[in-house]
Amino acid sequence: MHRLPHPLLQVPIPTLRVSPEHGLAPLTAGRRGPMVPQTRYKPHASSDQRRYREEVALDESIHFFMQEPEEHGISLADALNDRFARLAGCDEPMFIDRGPSISVRINWPGYQPWSRQIPTRDFRNPPEPITRAKLAKNVAKSVQRFIQEHKNRAMEEEGEEEWMIGPQKIDLFDLVLIRLDHVSKGSWQAQLQLARPLPLRSLAPSDPAPLFGPLHDV
Fold first, then answer.
1. Is the pLDDT at 9 greater than 90, yes or no?
2. pLDDT band at 199, cuts 50/70/90?
3. Beta-carbon neighbour count of residue 11 at 10 Å?
4. What CA–CA distances, in Å, run from 13 to 69, 195, 216?
5. Could you tell me which of 71, 69, 62, 165 has the C-alpha nearest to residue 110?
6. Cα–Cα distance for residue pair 174/64, rounded to 1 Å
7. Cα(40)–Cα(26) distance, rounded to whole angstroms?
């Protein structure tokens, strides 16, 4: 189980300023964009579906909540830059009874399914489970790698242009990590949300801050 040490209340999100040294902060409530509409990962072969999904007790999703003020999700820019002061349960160990690595999966609309292995143990001797904060950073690095690999790649024919990745499209600064869903024995799918409504152009560090608000799940 990966539970927060205490429940977070649903409260209105006040208007805050954002400074470059403190990263992205929540602003006007109700102004986040949609969740990235992903199909749920499942193994291709029916035998693998039985082995890795149907015959496995999947864990609860791992959520990322922020405090003061309370909100659901951490910006990938904050996670990548070790800004975890507001992350609830940031030092809580993850994957205590799991193997040495997991696959982070992304089924971004208009692109082929993608995955990357990340460690579940740190580099101490003996190795210890990674924390929620370290997990958030590893997922942010994975999404960064995904974007780098796809930013100059054409979408599939049925892809919708509003979900295109690349310069002046969707980039790391536009995304919030909401949770990880346990989708098969060793795979966790990253559920992401846009930091502000569509249409948008990619946020650079010098751009105005994105507008955060409540989660609208799919």
1. no
2. confident
3. 10
4. 6, 14, 15
5. 165
6. 17
7. 28
One-letter amino acid for residue 179 of the chain: R
Q: Are strands 187-194 and 101-106 parallel, antiparallel or unpaired?
A: parallel
207 secondary structure, DSSP code: S
Give the tokens for residue 160.
């919708």
Give just the sign of the alpha carbon dihedral 103, 109, 111, 112: positive
| Cα angle 181, 185, 190; round to 5 | 25
Cα 103 to Cα 42: distance, rounded to the nearest angstrom: 13
Give the β-pairing of 74-75 and 114-119. unpaired
Q: Which two tokens stand for residue 202?
A: 């990619």
Nearest CA to 23 among 110, 127, 140, 116?
140
Question: Helix, strand, coil: what percent of the chain each, to 5?
Answer: 20, 20, 60
Tell me: pLDDT of 89 over 60.
Answer: yes
Q: Which tens digit of pLDDT belongs to each residue from 48-70?
A: 555 545 557 899 999 999 999 99
Alpha helices in 68-169 (DSSP H): 76-80, 132-150
Residue 125 φ then ψ, to 5°: -125, 110
Residue 35 confidence class, pLDDT cut points 50, 70, 90: very high
User: Is residue 137 classed as helix, strand or coil in its secondary structure?
Assistant: helix
